[in-house]
Each structure stands twice: as structure tokens, then as C-alpha cells.
Amino acid sequence: MLEKLMEMKESAKEKISEAKTIQELNETKSLYLGKKSPLQALFSQMKDLTNEGKKELGQKINEFKTMVEEEVNKRLEKIKEEEVERRLKMEAIDVTLPGKEIPVGALHVLTKTIEEMEDIFLSMGYSVVEGPEVEEDKFNFEMMNLPKNHPARDMQDSFYINPNILLRTHTSPVQARTMLKAKGEPIKVICPGKVYRRDDDDATHSHQFMQLEGLVVDKDISMADLKGTLSLLMQKMLGKNTKIRFRPSYFPFTEPSVEVDVTCFKCGGKGCPLCKGSGWIEVLGGGKVHPNVLKMAGYDPNVYTGFAFGIGIERIAMLKHGIDDIRNFYISDPRFLKQF
Fold it and tell me: Is residue 73 part of a domain?
């Protein structure tokens, strides 16, 4: 029996060393230690041995089992190492190959335009404030000197959610909220954001567009302050030789009110098809804050004055980059967006 056990020991070592996979290793272990292994036959023959023989055989059997377990564990670690090496070779990276280009996004041209304008106003001491796009009629119209049924409301055909709630038609309600929050103190703010008006979509109009409004309220504010501010803005945005001019106009929330033109960036004011031969292009509206607007916001118009203006972001971007259709900003065509 001891000779047979020695033969099994040598055979087990050889078989375990030849196992290539974990499955083969488990099968080999089962072959020598399983319920149907030759080892079980030796157990069945122990009843015929003397006590001394049983003791000696039992010791040898335990040594055999320990040897098999140790050899299996050693081979298992080796198989795992070989598998790791094999996978590393299969999955090796060729560092000489050119890397894959990762697409990098960029800011939208309108976002860039807004941020450029914000930087200019921040350098002049303005603060940037924002407000809700779904607005109360009170802030959108009434506090802008446009009471209910006022005919000037037709200038801003609106999207109403209910009789008192609508999508804001300009960012002026942000100005109203800011003035109320200031409680009679001087303010100097710009209000950028999306606005909505029921309009036909064509090359120059959109039912949604972006606007940047500015408001200054303090003592002794004049139209000269407005002109100086807008002159600096347009020179920074459209070129240092850009000039502006005021034309009388009407807005319910300013008095006096003006339309603001800039010299045509294409012809320099000489006249061309872009400016229809006039040398000027209309860009925005503004004026001194109406006394009624100041009163409703808690300011004494005998002490405080101010100016306000509103600029279409798309209009400035179109002039700056020579874009001829406002719809290009919103159709998400990569061929257009990649230009900027």
C-alpha cells in the first residue's frame, strides 16, 4: 500500500504540473482526492491492517493529501500569473500609433458675445443680474409704465400663460425687481437673458431671442452718460472707429427716448448695400428712465435720474461676424457653429 501511495505521489506531482487551466487543475485535484480516487480504495483496505499499520498508513495518507493541496495551490498561483502575462501581451498598446483625436466642444457664438459684452460692462463697474423668464404682468409691463390695456403693449405681442403670467418680452422686469430690492439706493446693472415675443420667424426675426439691457440710477445722470457708455461699448465690440448717433423715438419706460445707430462696419459710414446707402445701422434703443418708472420702484424722480437701454445679442453678433440670418443661431448646424 505504501508503494502504491508513493506511485500516486509522483503521478500527482506530474499531473498537477501539467495542468494548463484552472479547470484542468480542479479536475486533477478531484482525480487524487475525490470520492472516486484511488485514495478512497486505500481507506477501505485499512481495516485489514494492524493498529501499527493503520497508524503508519494514515500518517502517509495525510502527508499525501497535504502534498497535493500544496502543489495545487502553487500551480494555481502560477496559472494566474501566466494568464495575466498572456492578457498583457494580447492587450498591449502600440505607443507608436497616433492617438485618437478627442472632440472638444466650444462656447456658442451667442454665449461668447454675451460674455464679451459682460466683460466690458464689468470693467465699467456694472453688476450682472438675472431673473425669471416666466414673469408676472406687473413686472413685465405695469412697472415699466405700461398699464393694462395700454396701446403700446401691442409693440410686444406676448405669450401669456394666464392673464397675469407670461413669457417675458424683454429683460426689463429684472430691472424692476432690482430697483425694488435696492430700496432707493443707486444701482448700475446689466440684465442679459432670453426673451419671447409672438413673431414670424424669418431671416431677421425670431419668436425667441436674447437681449442685454442696462440700467443706471443715481443723482445727476444725463443723456451724455448714456452716449458715452454706448460709444465705448460699440467701439469695443465693433471696432475703435465706430461712431454712434441718437435719433428721437418713443418707449413707454424712458423719456426722452432714442434709437441708437452705429456707423456701418462694412463701409465705415460711406454708404453701401448693407446699410442701404445711409452709412448707419440701427442697433438698439434707450433713453432716460421715465419718472413714473422711478416712482413705482421707490425712487424720488426729483432727486434721482437714470438711463436704460436694450440691445439684441443676435443683432450685435450678426454685425460683428457678418451673419445674415438669425435662424442660424438656433438650428444647431455644426457647419455654422464651427466657424466660431
Answer: yes
- Distance from C-alpha of 261 to C-alpha of 275, rounded to nearest angstrom: 11
In the prediction, which pLDDT does 1 show?
61
Res 4 pLDDT > 80: no
Structure confidence at residue 201 (pLDDT)? 65
Strand pairing class (244-251; 254-263): antiparallel
Give me the mean pLDDT over the 151-173 stretch. Answer: 87
Structural domain boundaries enclosing 17: 2-90
Same domain, 43 and 115: no
Give the helix/strand (H/E) hosting 256: strand 254-263
Same-domain check for residues 83 and 115:
no
pLDDT at 46: 67
For 51, the grid coordinates are: 493498529
Residue of 183, 173, 175, 180 lying closest to 136 (CA atoms): 173
The residue from 41, 63, 90 where one domain ends is 90
Residues 6 or more apart whose CB falls under 8 angstroms from that of 121 comprise 128, 190, 214, 233
164 and 123 both lie in a single domain: yes
For residue 284, count other CB atoms closer than 10 A to its CB: 23
pTM of the complete model? 0.68
Cα–Cα dist 63/56, whole Å: 11
Q: Taking Cα atoms as reference points, which of 14, 12, 96, 109 lies closest to residue 61? A: 12
Nearest to 219 by CA among 289, 150, 116, 136: 289
Is 133 a residue whose pLDDT tops 90? yes
- CA 101 – CA 294 distance, rounded (Å): 56
207 in the same domain as 75: no
